[in-house]
Design goal:
This protein has helices at 3-12, 19-31, 37-47, 53-65, 107-112, 132-138; strands spanning 69-74, 77-82, 89-93, 99-102, 126-129. By secondary structure, the chain is α+β, with helices and mostly antiparallel strands. The chain binds zinc ion (3 copies).
């Protein structure tokens, strides 16, 4: 997914990508990890430019609405990760906060087996743990 597609999708939802919002977005997309809004704010400030915390909140809210960000509730904090608009699951490292996308999926078929429960519209499945490089660091 490139910036043009993201821009298009946000535009359809009446969200205009200003220069400031674009800077936050690019940092968020490239990081491939999850952030709380405050963490993302710091991250952007260090690397790009000064942006308001409100800008970060607004962008994360808009991205979540159109399905380009997923919030995770971990230890009472909400972290967000960027998501391409293709069905996937996540592996989230609780130590370095990297997020890996898993595009392989059998969950829908598994649920379709038992039609008595109801009809599935969509599903979510995420894994939380420690990534390989964090595990190796320990030794
Ligand atoms: Zn995702
Ligand atoms: Zn890790
Ligand atoms: Zn799935």
């Amino acid at each position: 997914m490139d910036l043009k597609d993201i821009q298009q999708l946000l535009h359809e939802h009446k969200f205009r990508l200003t220069k400031e919002r674009e800077a936050v977005l690019m940092a968020f997309v490239d990081a491939r990890r999850m952030f709380t809004p405050a963490q993302l704010h710091d991250y952007v400030k260090e690397r790009y430019e000064r942006v308001g915390l409100t800008t970060v909140y607004r962008l994360l809210e808009a991205l979540t609405k159109v399905g380009l960000a997923t919030p995770f509730l971990i230890d009472g904090e909400i972290y967000y990760t960027f998501c391409p608009n293709q069905h996937h699951h996540h592996f989230v490292c609780l130590q370095c906060h990297q997020v890996k996308e898993l595009f392989q999926c059998n969950a829908q078929q598994a649920m379709d087996v038992d039609q008595k429960i109801g009809t599935v519209a969509y599903h979510k499945l995420d894994f939380f743990g420690r990534c390989r490089s964090c595990e190796e660091e320990k030794h």
